[in-house]
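Problem 12. The chain below contains 136 residues. Write out its predicted structure in token notation.
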Amino acid sequence: MERTLAKLITGSLLMAALLLAPSDAEAMGASWGYVCKTRLEVPTPGSTLYGDHGFISVTLYSRPACTGSYRGLGYIFSKGATSSAANPRFLYDQPTLLYLAQGLRQAAIQRQQVYVLTFPHKPYAISSVTFSGWTQ
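Solution.
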């Protein structure tokens, strides 16, 4: 059961994936890193800019506890997002958004490495997140 759940979660997270761009806004494409900060933002009443259920912001560094080099900043948008930064192929429902927010928070607390992926045309829109220690 755990192995099946890990496969399902990993597959979902790969589809959900992530972004990342260095400070000069050049897309990294794919990178391992550590969550420095993550925050689930509630939706702004009357605005769909970041989605119907809000969004998650994620800041990554090359080492745990916000040390090492800055890897980038990215966002996981919810369904309904109209921001030009959002990738319409990767918008998430509320349960998935909450699940990802909890996973990223735990990764930061436990100093767990994450693998993130973004697309060059949407360098701040998270498209995939994989947590280290999970097997496919």
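Discussion. The first helix runs from residue 2 to 16. Students who got a different answer should revisit the alignment rule from Section 12.3.
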